[in-house]
Amino acid sequence: MLRGEITTAIRRALMQELAAVGYGRLSIEAVARRAGVSKTAIYRRWNSKLDLVLEVVAAAAGRRLPALDTGTLRGDLSLLFQVLAHALRHPLASQIIPDLLAEAARNPTIDETLQRVLRARQQEVAGELIGRAVRRGELPADTDPDVAVDLIVGPLYWRIAIARTPVTDSYLEALVESVASGLGAQDSVPRQRSAPDPG
Amino acid sequence: MLRGEITTAIRRALMQELAAVGYGRLSIEAVARRAGVSKTAIYRRWNSKLDLVLEVVAAAAGRRLPALDTGTLRGDLSLLFQVLAHALRHPLASQIIPDLLAEAARNPTIDETLQRVLRARQQEVAGELIGRAVRRGELPADTDPDVAVDLIVGPLYWRIAIARTPVTDSYLEALVESVASGLGAQDSVPRQRSAPDPG
């Protein structure tokens, strides 16, 4: 294997091991075995199990989403919810992050890294969407980004990652309308639509 | 200790051990030691570690909240968010549930129990609140309880248990307005309030 291939194999094996056994029971031996590399190959790249886990998980959770600018707030929300619904079914969201959140209460380094990654992530996915809607005049200029981000990310996270309830297309459509209304979208006529949108 | 006191001591010790070491590393010996009882006292009451954990966690997570009927939707939301913000800082929400969610992907019995408890819980806290608001005429009769529940519980759960961002009184006030608007509350005038409410 080339150097880059070894690193990729280690990253993939680490994510699989984390999903399978969790942080507490994870061993570097098992990651090396799964990746088909030596333990030395891992320790040459990362100083410790903690270093390895934090760097790989932060990179995976921080991977940039495709551009989500559809031209309207509702279009952006709809696309974002579809992307999120897919991402939240990945073991990263359903197993690895919950496991590390539990671990974070016992380990300040894990806690700080997770907070930094999750905040950057939510800022990326929701903050940019809100900024565009404000510039388009769809949301009030004084929209509170703090509340808005939680309102956009929270309901779908709760449903898929915590309550583990299935998500249908009609659910996602209804959620777009509810979240847009909750954000104070100017053209929001959630219950009866009197005329088609001009744009 | 009396029989009831022994059971209470075991329950308390189990929750503390779960928060301290997580499900994977939890041992019945450590729970017995912390509770000051014999292992036999535990096995007389529960068949296995899994039985013990699921019964105690389900009982703790399923404990009924105080009555939340304040007479208005916004009042109910405000009180619920205060209660939730407190509850979500408990180790049950910040450590034990995330740990068991990660474990659930490896263990169908944990998965089913958690789903049952979390759904019953969200139905209790959000479902009853929505029903009252519909009966008062504050929410449309065709309010989709499926979306409404996620919209009520999700943002605060995301903020406190996942993103771990502090919650202030003014944040909670803004969240009440946003969620009420998102639910389609009839008297919702979130940005400019033209006249004081008659009621």
Automatic annotation (TrEMBL), chains A, B:
Any one GO MF annotation of this record: DNA-binding transcription factor activity
Keyword Transcription attributed: yes
Keywords annotated in UniProt: DNA-binding, Transcription, Transcription regulation
SUPFAM superfamilies according to UniProt: Homeodomain-like, Tetracyclin repressor-like, C-terminal domain
Record-linked Gene3D superfamilies: Homeodomain-like, Tetracycline Repressor, domain 2
DNA-binding region: 27-46
UniProt xrefs under InterPro entries: DNA-bd_HTH_TetR-type_CS, Homeodomain-like_sf, HTH-type_TetR-like_transc_reg, HTH_TetR, Tet_transcr_reg_TetR-rel_C_sf, TetR_C
Domain HTH tetR-type positions: 4-64
Matches recorded under Pfam families: TetR_C_11 (PF16859), TetR_N (PF00440)
Protein name: TetR/AcrR family transcriptional regulator
